[in-house]
Amino acid sequence: MSVFKYFYAKQFFNYTLLIILTVIMCIVLHELGHYVSAKMLGYQPTLHYNKVSFENDINFENLAKNTSVEVKRKIQRDKIIWNIAGPIITILLGTIGFVLLLIKHSKKYFFNNFSIFYFLLSLNWLRQIIVLLQSLMSLIIGRKSHSDDLVIDYIIQLPPLTFSLITGILSFFLFSFTIFKLIPITHRLTLFLSVALGGSIGSILWLFIIGPILLP
């Protein structure tokens, strides 16, 4: 049996385009999570293509040193909230997609456009695998990482990689279950290759080309 027996070029092209758009949308929604939470806490954030900055580049570490205990606690709490807001949005979207796909699979299952949409939502979980690998690489080569997940570990005084390991391992099992249990074999290879290509192209397009122009 040929490995490419169930590979469909037309679907591969369409899925890849959808995944490129999904990746861009997910990155923007992730940063919006940081932006909206900081705004609700009373700060003046600025939304960029890959981060959220604050008016006048506030140095929260210095600010915390020169304020009362009560203000220090508020700053610490606020930092936890806006740092975790991005990953929470990403994980929430991924979980919604996974649950909807699971519900659809439990009924009279037919893989249609709704299933594709649910699958695309579930891909948000893949961020946690990517972040875990990036964080591991940064620790191995001794380069400082500013990923949300490592910042969360630092703020709540957990060992490095705790948040990334927990969510990354969970992400791996959810993605594996989705691909090998929820996706029909006739779509599996095409979707898997589309995720690999579309995810790479979408990230490069937004982080290096489109993003810096639209949200510098």
What does this structure look like?
- With 216 residues, this protein is mainly alpha-helical.
- The chain has one domain.
- Helices cover 75% and strands 3% of the residues.
- It contains eight helices and two strands, in the order αββααααααα.
- It has helices spanning 9-40, 60-65, 69-106, 113-122, 126-141, 148-155, 162-182, 185-214; strands spanning 45-47, 52-54.
- A two-stranded antiparallel ribbon has the order 1-2.
- The mean pLDDT is 88.
Poorly predicted runs are: none
Order of helices and strands: HEEHHHHHHH
Average pLDDT rating = 88
Largest sheet entry? 2 strands, antiparallel
What level of helicity do the residues show? over 70%
Silhouette: elongated
Structural class: mainly alpha
Widest sheet, order of strands: 1-2
Kindly state the number of beta strands. Answer: 2
Taking the alpha carbons of the first and last residues, their distance comes to 49 Å
The number of distinct structural domains comes to 1
Q: Tell me which oligomeric state these chains represent.
A: single chain
Number of helices: 8
Radius of gyration computed on alpha carbons = 19 Å
In short:
The protein has eight helices and two strands, in the order H-E-E-H-H-H-H-H-H-H. The protein has 216 residues and is mostly helical.
